[in-house]
Design a protein that fits this description.
Elements lengths: L2 H14 L14 H18 L4 H8 L9 H9 L5 E3 L7 E3 L4 E3 L31 H11 L4 H14 L36 H15 L3 H11 L3
Amino acid sequence: MGRHSRVDELRAQMKSAGGDVSGRHKRTAWSLPVFATVASFAFVAVILAPPSVSSAAAASGVEFGSIEAPAFADVRAAQPRVAQSVTVAGAAVSVAGRDAFSITDPVVVPPPVVVVEEASASAAPAAGTPDPGSAQAIAQGILASMGMGDDQYSCLVALWNRESGWNVYAFNESSGAYGIPQSLPGDKMASAGADWATNPATQISWGLSYITSRYATPCGAWEHSEINGWY
């Protein structure tokens, strides 16, 4: 017997017994209400259920791996925070702690101060001890009576070596200056004595009077001469 003949025979038997031979699925009367009730409970459960840890972390932008266990956090809080620092002469000092990092101002070590002593412009070579009775010996004696020492004597020797070479008769034809101090004109020395043209003591006395009135000391006159070429 063929397959279709068997199927037709079964349908004929079911139909004669009053069964449904249309081929469609026939639901029971209680299945639809039960399904609707289960679906409603499931929907409400989804709405009321709290979000998972991973979902909350994703929504807040916090990674789950950054959350520390409470016990470990308490241990860290109880420990003192010790900063680490390194100081190097002439370099920046870095201070690094557990939770912060900062750079302080550089520690500047000033270079050693080198003091260079400059020779004074008023200094003159030491003149030494003059020959007794010479014009320089007379000048040294007058300076000593004025309270001036060997330093001023050395400046005076250097000054008048430049002007006249300590020649009582020295005469400058271009300017008319005369004598040891090169007075201009020469007869100005007459205020110190009538023998101004021949006496070294008179010329020296006048010359020292001129120097103290203009430059205070022979070293002051020597310094001016060094700078300007004249006094």
